[in-house]
Amino acid sequence: MRWVSGAAAIVLVLGWLLLRMKCGRRYAGLRSLPMEGLRLRAAGEPFLLLIEKWRIGSHLPSVMFRIQRSLQRSYGVRYSPERTLLFTGEMLSYSWLFMLGGSLLTLLSGVEAGVILGVLLALILPAALVSDLHKKVKLREQFIMLELPELLNSIVLLVGAGETVQRAIVRCVESRKGDYSHPLYKELFTMITEWEGGYSFQQAFENFSKRCAVQEVSLFTTTVLLNYRRGGADFVLSLRDLSRMLWEKRKALSRTRGEQASSKLVFPMVLIFLIVIVLVGTPAIMMLKM
């Protein structure tokens, strides 16, 4: 079994080196593309060539579409094919490392389970990475949904006090004092940068809605674009109606998150209960046997 593991390790290393030499600087432009969570970007370049040559996207269209859709919701439509390619290369890089690690473990220690473990991890981890990506996108949407009513309340107050919509949004973003870690304010800051750079207010607002990819943000965008030119009491009234609806949705989402948190506590509580039963019951059973 050791010689098989050694041969597999050599094939994996040589295959990676050959692909690395063949791709050269073909993907050098993707190295600076901003994308969080990529830890093996340099090691994954040979697999990018492999993905394009084998046309993995055409063989797994539904999987690749879901990955690209999630990345579009996180980073926008621009460069989404490139980010999808990078993410897929990251998955293959982890699979390659686990197979190589399993082969080396079997080669050095003689434990046959090393190869099996490496193959299992190589199959499981890509699925786990895709699942984690979808969870991050869902959490991002929930964060936006929870913060949007607060933002809308602030805009309603500022517009009612005589500010324009643009100025009200700018003041809300400036109140963060440079902290744009929240996804909603990050996209708002990008929107402000766009219209200050020459985009029209309507175009920048529509781009903001597309980047957020949340239904409630689309309602907010539509309401603002339909009414902001009219101004006055009608505009404030429409924003207040939308605010009430968004607060109701926020309450429903908060209840759902609370129920999910409660359900997650069930397993630890059952586990603790079983441990207590064992700790209390074991001495009693031992005394009965004596």
TrEMBL record:
Topology in membrane: Multi-pass membrane protein
Residues in Type II secretion system protein GspF domain copies: 152-283
Membrane spanning stretches: 97-130, 265-288
InterPro entries: T2SS_GspF_dom (IPR018076)
Pfam family, one: T2SSF
Compartment(s): Cell membrane
GO CC entries: plasma membrane
Keywords attached to this entry: Cell membrane, Membrane, Transmembrane, Transmembrane helix
Record's protein name: Type II secretion system protein F (GspF)
